[in-house]
Amino acid sequence: MKTIKRSAALLLALCLIFTLAACGGSKEEAEPVKIGVPSDATNQARAISLLETAGLIEVDDAAGFTPELKDVTKYIYNIEIVPAAANALVSTLDDYGASTINGTYAIPAGLHPSTDGLITEVQDSGAGNPFINVIVSRTEDKDDPDYQTIVKAYQSQTIAQYLLEKNKGASVPAFSYDPNYSVPDDYVSSLEGYKSSSDGKKVIKLGVCGSGDVWRAVQKVLDEENSGLYIDVIIFDAYNLPNEALNSGEIDLNAFQHKAYLQSEIESQGYDLAVVGDTSSAPLTLYSKKAKDLDELKALAGKKEQ
C-alpha cells in the first residue's frame, strides 16, 4: 500500500513538473514599454540621444551626434523604441509609455517641457547648433529684400518676448534680444488676436507645421513698419510637405524645420533650398501620460534582463 502511495505521489509530482514546463514555468519578461520617437532620421537621432541621457539605453560612441536604432548597444530598461511620424506623436501619446516630441507639435497641443516633460534635450545656443529652426527660401531667392524684411521682423524684440512668454521654455529665440523686459498679462493674446489685411500689399506665402500663431505677431511688426508685405500662412500636417511645396514654387518661404532636417531633405530629395534667417531653438522633450517622472517610467518598464 505504501509503495502504491509513493508511486502516486511521484506521478503527481512529475505531472506538476511537466505542466509547469508546458505553461512556461520560468518567469517570462513582461511586455516592453513602448517609446515613440520621430521616424525622420535627424529627429530620431536626437530622440535616441535623449533616451541615452535619460539612462534608458546605451549607444555606441562611434555613432556621434547621429545615432540610429542599430547603434543602440544595450537596453538598460525593458523598452521598445517605436519610430512614428512626428506629427502623430502627440495624438498617439496615450498609446505609448512615453514619446519624444518636438516643440513644433508639443506647443500647440499645450505640452510644455518645464511642466509636462520627463527630460528635455540640452541644446547649444551657439550659431553652430544644427537644431536651430530657420526660415527657408529657394536658393535663387535667398537674398530677396522682402524676405530679409520678414527675417528682420521675426528677429525683433517683440517676437523674442512673444516666444518667451508663449512657450515657457518649449522654444527660445535664436537671435539677439534683451532679456530684461516686462509685458502686460494679455501680451500673447493681443498679438495672436491681431488682424491684418492683404489689401494693397505684396502677398508672401509661407508654409508651417503645427501652429502659425507667431506669424500674426510678425505681421503686426511688418504693419507697424509699413512694409507693404502680407504673410499668407499655409499650415501643413506633415514635415515632408513644406519643403516639397517650396521647391516646386507653390509657396515662397517656409518656417518649420531646423538646419539639420533641411540639410537631410536637400541631400535626399535634391531640393534647391537655402536658409534666409534663424528663428528659434525648440528642444526635444520626452513626454508621458503614464509616468510623472523618469523614475516612474523606469519602474513601469523594469530593468531589462540581460
Name some characteristics of this structure:
5-stranded mixed sheet; 13 strands; D-Maltodextrin-Binding Protein, domain 2; 11 helices; 2 domains; 6-stranded mixed sheet; alpha/beta; 306 residues; disordered N terminus
Task: Give your account of this protein's structure.
The protein has helices at 2-22, 41-53, 103-106, 113-116, 145-154, 157-167, 187-192, 214-224, 240-248, 259-269, 294-301; strands spanning 33-38, 57-59, 72-75, 79-84, 98-101, 117-120, 132-138, 172-173, 202-209, 229-236, 253-258, 273-281, 285-287. It has 306 residues and is α/β, with parallel strands linked by helices. It has two domains: 33-122 and 285-301, 3-Layer(aba) Sandwich (D-Maltodextrin-Binding Protein, domain 2), CATH 3.40.190; 132-281, D-Maltodextrin-Binding Protein, domain 2 (3-Layer(aba) Sandwich), CATH 3.40.190. The strands form three sheets. A six-stranded mixed β-sheet has the order 8-12-7-11-9-10, with helices on both faces. A five-stranded mixed β-sheet has the order 4-1-5-13-6. Helix 8 (214-224) links the parallel strand 9 and strand 10 (229-236). The longest helix has 21 residues, at 2-22.
SSE layout and pairing:
Elements: H1 2-22, E1 33-38, H2 41-53, E2 57-59, E3 72-75, E4 79-84, E5 98-101, H3 103-106, H4 113-116, E6 117-120, E7 132-138, H5 145-154, H6 157-167, E8 172-173, H7 187-192, E9 202-209, H8 214-224, E10 229-236, H9 240-248, E11 253-258, H10 259-269, E12 273-281, E13 285-287, H11 294-301
Helix pairs in contact: 5-8, 6-8
